[in-house]
Structures
1.
Amino acid sequence: MITNKEKLLDLFCRLVSCDSPSYGENAVRDAVISELKSLGISVEEDGTAEKTGGTCGNLYAKIDGDPSLAPVLLSAHLDTVEPSVGKKAVVHPDGLISSAKDTVLGADDAAGLTSILHAIRNVIEKGVSHRPVELVFDVCEERYCVGIQKFDYSKISAKQVYVLDVDGRVGRAATQAPSIVQYKAVFNGRAAHSGFSPEEGLHAIKTAAEAISKISCGRTGDMTVNIGSVSGGIADNIVPPECTVTGEIRGFNNEKVAAKTDEIGALMKSVAEKNGLSCDFSRTVICRAFKTGETSEICRNYAEACKKSGVIPEFIKTYGASTNNHWSEWGFCGLVISCGMNNCHSVEEWTTADELCRSAEIVYNIITDCKG
Ligand SMILES: [Zn+2]
């Protein structure tokens, strides 16, 4: 059972009050380090800032525990989405916590950081026996997990990873997340004066539009396709020589997503060629899908940790990526668990003191009760 709800709330409010844009997480880093220092835990910062041009690298800490128990890795991200500068937690009399509505609250992911740090405080202050714990607090997560991809995962001894980064009721855990591929198609036509010699032009925008009209967007089965941006053209009296179309594809099967990307690329090229243009098609694999079986040890451990606090566990699949996509690719077995954030990525974001406590308590149970 965790105690000291006031300290937990105070920590959450302090973390929220730190400016924490992606590439500028130094203030929240300092707050996290001072919290861990006050518990006698030293923290390493890796060299990611030099590689990204940001103000902060990923943080790593290790807390020795009972060596006969399996170590566990707990992770949350340091950055938040915008608008975030000057954010402040407003604690309402009924326990609801919101922003002042001119910024996000940043419970994504201050709720995750708070849950982990407060659970660790309880474990240490109570002197209870616990699993060895490793902590990773990564940067630039909101920019397609830029920070974690630069992290040296070879230093991790744990096999089980809990990423605290899912919205909704505490007790939810994502066992599946998609592969995400971004694509870019550049249609190369030919400029001409649209009044004097339109027949000499090759219309890049019209050709892109023809290709776009043949692509089905939205959800098909367990895959989604989107066209996210179209840009091109120079002036109203010039046949546009270039048009760029970008979009993304998500799905739970890596091969199917790759095949869909190939299909879209081939279609865009063939429409371009039919009209006498060329098309340069490229893709970026943002992350690969993961699936953690619901009968796996980590799911059983998590369910047990929830039940111990009277919380009903619920395993879900999410269309959002997290750092666990990368942990999974590196061979770790992970879950992305909820930690009390709601309406994320909006100024309407909220949490409650009770949910933060429940989340911290589940982390406490994971560290102290489960044998891994
Ligand atoms: Zn997040």
Note: The two ends are 19 Å apart (CA to CA).
2.
Amino acid sequence: MELLNQQVMKAKNMKAVFSLIWDEAGISRAEIAKRLSLSKTTISSLVEELIQRSFIVDTGKQATTSVGRRPSSLFVRQGSHFVPVITWTRNTIDFQVLDLNGETVFTQIEQISDKDQFVSVTSRNLKAICARNAFKDKILVCCLVLPGMIDSFHDVLYSTTLGMYDHDAKAMYESVHKVCKQYPFAVLQDTACYAYAEKIYTTIKVQEFAFINFNIGIGATLFVQGNMLGKANGAFTQFGHYSMDSQGIECACGNRGCLENEIGESNLSTRFKEFSGETDVVIPEYLTYEDLGVAVKEGNETAKRVVISLASDFAQALRNVVCLVNPRLIVLGGKCQYLGELFLTQVQTLLHAQGFSQMSDFTLIRYTNLDSNAYLKGAMRYFFDTYYDFSDVTGNSLFIG
Ligand SMILES: [Zn+2]
């Protein structure tokens, strides 16, 4: 029992040491000992093991100067451990392999014409990736990132984006995991991974914040007291299906007037037609946020009115989020950034003009500082922080959310 406790403690400390080196590249052994309130001897032995296991390198050790040895300078080792992240979107399967520094070292994109192909194409390509010499035996986890609701309690994957309502979801994940059985396998939601990246890779100081992702759907992940509300499964919050109008268009989810059907990209063309009235201008069947943003920049008055109306509806939904969880910060990610300053300023103004001022007056809104691929690093880091264990007790399990 005593031995077991020691092993658990050692793995926990090793994870803390590695996380510090990850976040503060170049940190020294002495500084780590100070931060973690552990002895220098303990830190030295943990660092040695991390070096031996190829997780980190000590660049200070390799060089001496005229005044003696340089202090230790610890960095995550490049190209020694890998994380394949597979993303299902409406028409594609994206295969990316990251190293622990978050660099993409392999990319492959497959077009999908039928949703029945998702499992077979994923399995075939993932198997080939795991067999590559560069990655073989160097994979920490394989991650599958999905848009939608990964409801492990009811064993359902519900995704309007993918057109999937699978009632035997675990069996589907297991059939993919079969091809990489020697590694752990994590099934995570896209917005949660994007939000987690925002938390880790930008300097968010507040404990309460909301991350809203505009993609084909609209998703949100909430952080309360510094922690993600629920797991990375999208089963706790489905902000895109927040009802704006009880008499509105019926959504595939069963609700009416869902936010993502009102202000989502699929409704932009309809909304533009409503605002343009009698005009000869040809409006494309599918108008994107990017098209709309370009039209605003070109001074198109109808486009401006459409953006202001989107901001008005979005602010209404946000005012309710503020009343539920009182976030100090709301970060907007994904395609809404194409709508630029006009959208952001309008949302800020309208959020504060109405709403419960004691709460909303203290809520800041900004666009994300990360690029749209940041969710890949978010997925890797979420798995590591939430599940990875240096004593290998995580084994090769399936992790959902
Ligand atoms: Zn809905």
Note: Residues 177 and 185 are 6 Å apart (CA to CA).
